[in-house]
Write a structure and sequence with these properties.
Layout lengths: L1 H22 L7 H6 L7 E5 L2 E6 L6 E6 L15 H8 L5 E2 L6 E2 L1 H12 L6 E5 L8 H11 L6 E4 L14 H13 L11 E6 L2 E6 L8 H11 L5 E4 L43 H12 L3 E6 L6 E5 L2 E5 L9 E7 L3
Helix pairs in contact: 1-6, 1-7, 4-5, 7-8
């Protein structure tokens, strides 16, 4: 119980710091900075299989990041016995999978162990965990993630997906439930003293922006955070769970999607959650997407959620969805200096 209380204090402290940050004046590129900043066309990317290389004049040294998304671990034990009625459906959702390498039957826990074993030998600079790492917020699932990834000896940075914090059918708004269950169960997956809804880390000169869009909603503070973090012109990469809207994509690509609304929410009953609002997104979501696709120093957007690898080129930059790690799939993202 002491661990829960301490985790919640860390969460609320971070939330308070985040609110203070959001109250600061937002920064933007000056005209001089805009004229000297690299244009979108200065960035080139190449995708081969599950390897994405991004070349930019902003990059000074190679940086390799392993993205893991949607592993959907379903581990549970007596510590969360009282929540069984809320975790039952997702606890049975992905019990048996087929390893993408061999086609043989496996399970998400074995696949994460294999991912970790392979990562130890590949000299990654960081790992990005982009949501739905667990299928519900169980103590056993969180402990397993930490135990398996620790031997890789590479820092990992985590944001929630729409399942990580969700005990299906539990009363409360999605925003309130996300706050509650991050604080109670998921805090130890984050670096210390960060706000789990939006934080940044610098890895070898690349700023990793970790933003939680797991309720399909962008908060005003998150938009302010993105604008502030991009204002220094430093090369950046945006990691979230739910992808940005792209032409021709369904509402699963929900951030800024014009059809994201109650009429197109087909899963709220089976997922036992709030229905999406009738009116759809507010202006914040559209402004967030516009900023992400227009900022010259944001080199790409990296998400999950869909379970199938896809690539959209939006305003000349990659918006890439990782395949689900539940079958052992990952993505290697390399940021590289533009060849001379």
């Amino acid at each position: 119980m002491a661990h829960v209380d301490q985790s919640r204090r860390r969460f609320l402290t971070a939330m308070g710091a985040f609110g203070a940050l959001a109250g600061e004046a937002s920064l933007s590129l000056t005209s001089a900075e805009e004229s000297s900043a690299p244009k979108t066309s200065d960035t080139v990317f190449a995708l081969q299989g599950r390897n994405l290389k991004i070349f930019s004049p902003l990059i000074k040294e190679p940086t390799r990041i392993l993205q893991i998304s949607d592993s959907h671990l379903f581990l549970d034990d007596e510590r969360d016995e009282e929540y069984k009625s809320y975790s039952d459906r997702m606890g049975k959702a992905y019990n048996v999978v087929k390893d993408f390498r061999t086609g043989k039957e496996s399970n998400p826990m074995a696949e994460l162990q294999q991912i970790a074993a392979e990562a130890r030998d590949k000299q990654y600079d960081a790992m990005a965990l982009t949501g739905d790492i667990v299928s519900f917020p169980s103590s056993a699932g969180v402990d397993f993630v930490k135990e398996v990834l620790a031997p890789v000896n590479v820092p990992y940075y985590y944001v929630c997906g729409n399942h990580d914090w969700h005990f299906e059918g539990m009363e409360g708004s999605e925003q309130a439930l996300r706050e509650e269950w991050i604080a109670k169960k998921l805090t130890s997956l984050y670096p210390e003293n960060v706000n789990p809804l939006a934080y940044s880390v610098v890895v070898k000169g690349v700023k990793m922006l970790m933003i939680d869009d797991s309720i399909y909603k962008i908060l005003p503070e998150q938009l302010d955070f993105l604008q502030k973090e991009l204002s220094d012109g430093m090369p950046a990469a945006l990691f979230m769970h739910i992808p940005l809207y792209a032409y021709g994509r369904g509402v699963g690509y929900g951030v800024g999607h014009p059809d994201w609304n109650a009429a197109h929410d087909n899963n709220y009953q089976i997922e036992r959650r709030e229905r999406w609002p009738e009116a759809g997104h507010d202006a914040i979501a559209y402004d967030f997407r516009d900023l992400a696709i227009s900022a010259p120093n944001l080199l790409g957007v990296f998400t999950g959620h869909i379970h199938v690898q896809t690539l959209d080129v939006i305003n000349g930059k990659p918006s890439h969805v990782a395949p689900a790690a539940l079958d052992g799939s990952t993505v290697t993202i390399e940021f590289l200096p533009t060849p001379k």
